[in-house]
Every structure is written in structure tokens, then in C-alpha cells.
Amino acid sequence: MNDLFLPIASHLLRGFGITLFVAILSIALATPLGLFVGLVTQSQSRGGRLAARGYIEALRGVPSLITLLFVFFALPRFGIEMSPIAASILGLGIWSAANIAEVARGALSSIASGQTVASRALGMNQSQTLIWVIGPQALKRFIPPYVNQVTLLIQASTLTSVVGVTELLGAGRQMIERLAYTGGSQSIMIYGAVMIFFFSICYPLTLLARALELKARSE
User: Fold this and answer.
1) Quick check: 94 and 59 in contact, CB under 8 A?
2) How far apart are CA 202 and CA 208, in angstroms?
3) What pLDDT digit, counting tens, does each position of 160-169 carry?
4) Which residue in 159, 193, 208 sits closest to 23, CA to CA?
5) Which of 18, 44, 95, 99 has its C-alpha lying 20 to 30 A from 181's C-alpha?
6) What are the distances in angstroms from CA 211 to CA 8, 13, 121?
7) Measuring CA to CA, how many Å separate 189 from each of 9, 14, 154, 176?
């Protein structure tokens, strides 16, 4: 058992590192894109609003795995070659951006329209109204569900093993298969370790989102 612990732990830690790498870069892509699309849903341009809504509905209407597989298999047909990790980051990023955009749209829409009218009456333009009046209030309502979206994206990173990324779950599955060839089986221990790794990341984020939501309600 001791002879197996170090190889298993080492392989799972490498997978854990890849999971964090993919998740962080996907979040880095999804956040600004989602905020931009969410802002466009509130723009005065009808074409822009329709395009933003189309993006949100199209991406939210399909599973994240389908988006990931489409990016991985479709882009090379157009001459865009990407590594499995890059395709995973792009696929998860654009999928999560649609969810973040919907969160941003909801936060902005929740602010009473009278505040916009009052700001305009004071001589503020659209940008000034957004930055100084609407934005700060919407941000408080945006952050709790945004943290939940980050948690969902981290959990969705397990899907990247389908396109050949050896993330945490994929690393665990590899170790189980290797041990099966040698006549051993440590599947319960390995999957238990995978669960602990994900729980150690996602549960604190869940608690953070809950605390932020309660704080926003009390203000």
C-alpha cells in the first residue's frame, strides 16, 4: 500500500494542477467576455441587444460538454489547430461567459429604472450613469451568483478529460486503469481522493457565495 501511495498522490497532484490551470484561464476568459455581453444586453443598440441575447441563449441552451467538443473538433476544420488544453479553456470559457453574462444582465436589470432617469436629469450620460450609479449597486448583486458560476466552471473542468486533458478526474481514472493491469484495485481510494480535492476548492467557494448573498440582502 505504501509503495502505491506516492505514485498515486504524485499523479493526482499533477492532475490537480492541470485542473486549476484550465479553470483559472477559463475564468480569466469568461469573466470579461461575460461582463461585456451582459453590458451589451442593456445597450441602446437593438442589434447589439439581439446579438448578446442570441449568444446567451445559444450557449446556455446546450451542455458545456457539447460546446467543448464542438470547439475541439470543429475549429480544426477551419484551419485553427489547438491543443486539448487550449480547446478546453476556450470551450469552457465561452460557455461560462454566457452564464456570467446572464448573471450580469440580471444584476443590471434589478436596479430601478428611476435611478437612471434621475441620473440623466442630473446631466450624466450613459457611461457616467453606469459607472457611478448603476454599476456599484449591480456589482453587489452580481458577485454572489458569479462565485457560484466559478464553482460550476471548476466542476465542469472534469469534462476536459474527454478531449485528452489529464486533469484531476482523468488522472484518477488513469491510475485506476494502470492498477487494474497489475491485478490491484484502489478505485474507492482514488475516487475518494478526487472528491476531497474538488470539495476542498468548491465548498469554500459555496460558503463564500452564501455569505456574500446574505450580506447583500442585509444591506
Assistant:
1) yes
2) 10
3) 999 989 999 9
4) 159
5) 18
6) 36, 30, 36
7) 11, 17, 22, 10
Collect all residues with Cβ–Cβ distance below 8 Å to 202 and sequence separation of at least 6: 151, 154, 155
Nearest partner of 170 among 9, 10, 18, 6, judged by Cα: 18
Centre a 10 Å sphere on the Cβ of residue 170 and count the other Cβ atoms it contains: 20
> Which domains are present in the chain?
2-218 (1.10.3720.10)
What are the start-end ranges of the E strands in 49-163?
none
Q: How long, in residues, is the chain? A: 219
Nearest to 182 by CA among 52, 37, 8: 8
Type of residue numbered 52 = A
Contact in structure between 23 and 187 (CB atoms under 8 Å): no
How far CA 160 is from CA of 115, 164, 190, in Å, comes to 44, 7, 19
For residue range 81-129, list pLDDT tens digits in order.
899 999 999 999 999 999 999 999 999 999 888 888 888 888 888 888 8
| 63, three cell numbers | 451542455
Q: What residues contact 212, with CB distance under 8 A and at least 6 apart?
A: 143, 144, 147
d(CA 22, CA 154) in angstroms, rounded, equals 9
